[in-house]
Design brief:
Length: 167
């Protein structure tokens, strides 16, 4: 997934997103759901799922559900959601209803689950692409942010590349 064409495609997907200002992952989820005309629900992975995943995206007939690991930091949780949004935006097909999470979500029949993607590694092109989209979303959000810090803290943020010198 290292071609320039792939990178440009991911950048175009992110450029077309309704990034909220100020940026937050829940606000992005809401804006993306409104744009797509179907709800996106973010839920925690069921305890004991045993799937070895920290995130999953399930496309249902009438909604999308993103599952995230419960016992992790807010920053990591947000990144997991952005990664799963990457799968959603790229329309990845994933593993179908045969994934191990299917057995811990008994209320979802295999017929209802059109797509299921679980994040367990980054070896496939789809995982790498979703990870790239997640990183590009975060970078775009930071670039569009309006910063209000001044003085030494503002200079420190600029030096670390956390905000542009144009602000």
């Amino acid at each position: 997934m290292s071609t320039r064409r792939d990178l440009r495609r991911c950048q175009a997907l992110v450029a077309g997103l309704p990034l909220p200002r100020p940026f937050s992952v829940p606000a992005l989820v809401d804006a993306l759901a409104a744009r797509r005309g179907r709800p996106i629900h973010v839920r925690t992975l069921p305890p004991g799922s045993g799937a070895g995943a920290c995130g999953a995206w399930i496309r249902l007939a009438s909604a999308d559900v993103i599952y995230v690991e419960e016992k992790t930091s807010r920053v990591h949780r947000d990144h997991i959601v952005l990664h799963e949004i990457g799968h959603l935006l790229c329309d990845h097909t994933g593993a179908g209803g045969t994934h191990p999470l299917s057995r811990v979500l008994p209320d979802l029949s295999p017929e209802l689950i059109e797509r299921l993607l679980a994040r367990t590694g980054y070896s496939t092109e789809e995982e790498q692409e979703a990870e790239l989209v997640a990183s590009l979303i975060r970078t775009a959000a930071q670039a569009r942010a309006s910063w209000t810090t001044t003085g030494a803290l503002g200079e420190f943020e600029t030096a670390l590349g956390l905000r542009g010198t144009w602000e």
